[in-house]
Design a protein that fits this description.
213 residues, alpha/beta, Lysozyme-like, 4 helices, 14% helix
Length: 213
């Protein structure tokens, strides 16, 4: 869907499914481990799912591998387990996907449905990015770097999303909620993702031409 103040551009061209193997089961990605979240809702009837939003998350911030992100997305986090959690107590959020530091991929919400990942947001002339986007969380901390295995999993997932959805844009959370969010942050290598995906430059945010500091 193109709005009046958005110039059309050719989006990603779907690649054939490898060996004819189906990679989607409805809105569930077959290469991800399913862990359904209760935090989701229906998309608006006319929503066109054409945006990928890349995030970063770790709980507590900067600590990896403890399963706390899973607990947050499934409403089972012990709010008293760490002082940081007092500031997010009762938060109900989710993303469609979560990529751990070793590249393992989890899916929490059916991609046909609306996950709660972007919050108040706007991009390519449209508000409420949750309505028509796929949210992908990378285990990490804004400003820090990410692992090669995470980039490999992210690129594979992004390449397979156009097999089911008319993906035309990829952006960071910081791009759809500027001033409010800073993830995935300056440590995320947009040039690397661009190199891994044979997509037109206009699919990516303008900053994607700059290397990370």
């Amino acid at each position: 869907m193109t709005t009046a103040n958005e110039a059309p551009h050719p989006g990603p061209v779907p690649c054939p499914e490898a060996g004819g193997r189906p990679v989607w089961d409805g809105g569930w990605y077959r290469d991800a481990t399913r862990e359904p979240s209760p935090n989701f809702g229906p998309r608006p009837a006319q929503a066109v799912i054409d945006l990928i939003v890349v995030h970063s998350i770790s709980l507590p911030p900067g600590e990896y591998g403890g399963g706390q992100v899973h607990r947050l997305f499934t409403n089972t986090l012990d709010w008293d387990a760490h002082p940081y959690y007092a500031g997010i107590r009762g938060l109900q959020v989710s993303a469609h996907f979560f990529i751990e530091r070793d590249g393992r991929l989890w899916q929490f919400v059916d991609c046909d449905l609306r996950a709660w990942h972007a919050g108040p947001s706007s991009y390519r002339g449209r508000a409420n990015c949750n309505d028509d986007s796929i949210g992908i969380e990378l285990e990490g901390l804004e400003g820090q770097t990410f692992e090669p295995a995470q980039y490999a999993t992210l690129a594979r997932l992004c390449a397979d999303l156009p097999l089911r959805y008319p993906i035309a844009h990829v952006a960071g959370h910081e791009d759809v909620a500027p001033g409010r969010k800073q993830d995935p942050g300056p440590g995320f290598d947009w040039q690397r993702l661009r190199a891994d995906l044979p997509w037109p430059p206009a699919v990516f945010p303008r900053k994607s031409t700059r290397p990370p500091p």
